[in-house]
Design goal:
With 242 residues, the protein is an alpha+beta fold. It has helices spanning 3-18, 30-37, 41-53, 69-73, 87-90, 112-118, 157-160, 164-172, 190-195, and strands at residues 57-60, 64-67, 79-80, 91-92, 99-109, 125-135, 138-148, 176-187, 203-213, 218-227. The protein folds into 2 domains: 1-67, Winged helix-like DNA-binding domain superfamily/Winged helix DNA-binding domain (Arc Repressor Mutant, subunit A, Orthogonal Bundle); 87-230, 3-Layer(aba) Sandwich (Chorismate lyase). It contains 9 helices and 10 strands. A hairpin with a 4-residue loop joins strand 9 (203-213) and strand 10 (218-227). The radius of gyration is 20 Å and the shape is globular.
């Protein structure tokens, strides 16, 4: 089975779950799904295993495969859908894709923190990309991203006004598939209050992380400051071997 078919089956199953196509929260068995998608059972098993790892579904021995009701309840916030981890091309908020407003784009020397995060040397430069994300006109995220010039030369305002990760996938045949994230909250500053329409008494959520391409190369060090209403963290932890 090709990776494209595998991703398609997985994404379609997840979309059906979000659409409420399984009102009793139970999925058909693997044989039925294989017939519906016209693929092998091993392909269905692989797609289901990924959804299990993501916490979307769980398997109960002797009973079948079920939708995780807590995951379903929280799906109206950030949903990852796709082969990349970028906000614009793989996340949805309340089922809607965020729009992008480019606030600033420049080339700057990498700071010591950025050098460490992106495995750069003294004297290396990065693109500094500052963007505001909106949902139906309502601002919800200020994003500052730092991309090494030597990893992705040729970026311009047109590219960074859209999905950088989609550009990487289409032009470099690479996908951003891993990240290390820190999630926290702190009092909002003057810029947060202005751009995210917060009061001086409201906090801001922070997601800071390093995003890696599928060959292990760090592509971006990113700091995202969110309106606190959109900050929610879900974790699925498994200690068994399945």
């Amino acid at each position: 089975m090709s990776e494209a078919i595998y991703v398609t089956v997985q994404a379609d199953l997840k979309q059906k779950i979000y659409n409420g196509d399984f009102p009793d929260l139970k999925l058909p068995d693997e044989r039925t799904l294989a017939a519906q998608y016209e693929v092998s059972r091993s392909s269905i098993k692989r797609a289901l295993n990924v959804l299990v790892q993501q916490g979307v579904i769980f398997k109960k021995r002797g009973s079948g495969t079920f939708v995780n009701p807590l995951y379903l309840k929280n799906h109206d916030l950030f949903q990852h859908e796709g082969s990349n981890l970028g906000v614009s091309d793989s996340f949805r908020v309340d089922g809607k894709a965020p729009s992008i407003e480019l606030l600033d784009f420049q080339v700057v020397p990498a700071t010591p923190v950025q050098q460490q995060a992106l495995f750069l040397n003294d004297g290396d430069f990065v693109y500094e990309i500052k963007r505001l994300r909106r949902l139906e006109g309502v601002p919800f995220m200020i994003e500052r991203g730092y991309v090494p010039i030597n990893v992705l030369p040729g970026l311009n305002k047109e590219i960074v006004s859209g999905s950088v990760y989609e550009y990487v996938e289409n032009t470099k045949n690479r996908a951003v598939t891993k990240s290390f994230m820190t999630i926290m909250a702190e009092p909002s500053n003057a810029e947060d209050q202005q751009l995210l329409e917060l009061s001086d008494k409201e906090p801001v959520g922070i997601m800071e992380g390093i995003f890696f391409m599928d060959d292990g190369t760090p592509l971006e060090f990113s700091n995202m400051r969110l309106h606190y209403k959109y900050l929610r963290y879900n974790a699925f932890v498994s200690i068994d071997s399945e």
